[in-house]
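Lab notebook: predicted structure, single chain.

Context: the supervisor wants predicted structures on file for every construct in the current expression panel, including those that have not yet been purified. This is the next one on the list. No modifications to the sequence; it matches the entry in the shared construct table.
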Amino acid sequence: MTAILSVLSVPRSTYYRWLTEGPPRVLKKVEEAIIALCKKTKYRFGHRKIKKLLKEEYKLDRHRNTVQSIMQKHHLQCRIKPKRKWKSQGESVIIAPNLLQRNFMASAPNQKWVTDITYIQYGRSTMYLSTIMDLFNNEIVAYKMYDHQQTPLVIDTLKEALEMRGNPEGVIIHSDQGSVYTSYAYQELVKKSHLVSSMSRRGNCWDNAVIESFHSNIKSEEFQYVKYNSIHNIQVVEKVNEYVRYYNQDRILEKLGYLTPKEFGAQAA
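Prediction complete. Output recorded below exactly as produced.
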């Protein structure tokens, strides 16, 4: 036995430890759990959220640096969103004051809504996604996706949000100074619905950062492995529908105490 251990360069102490403990596992339990969680969340979460899920689902409490180290070891880091370049909008028709003032917190539903349009370039032609979010729990209240970014797109989105929430009054609806939001038709709907219009300063993306971040997330998470103009438009619509469902029902947010928008809203109901 001594000769065999010598040939294999295995210390005698290691051999006897293997006899009593068995061979070492390839992965520790915590590593297996982290890999499973990252796979389950489609590699969208950073180490802080994975640490939270690790404790909730596997009863394993580890320091976030440990979780981060394991994720780095197995190349499980979430994708970093690219910084977006901004430019000023053109001349406006109706400009509302910036009532939000970057205060993205709300103490109850239907106090503050934010809205924006982003382009989706993964289908056969460019599509435009209009979204409205409630800042109380960051839930996506309504969204529409058309092949144009004209005024009917934002009007239909707002009408759907009002219908989904039972036509609440007095809601601050915050947007940028895009021509569709400053149009008379859109502003007339806002006024008729007894909402309060608020707008970002021209060319200042940070004044509407939360909805901008959501639109960035949908591209970096749901379409991260999709090339531009590589799939059919119907597939784009399906992926957007799935991501909004996932975002509202499954995606935990640090702002909400690591609850999903739906869970946080249900607690407050």
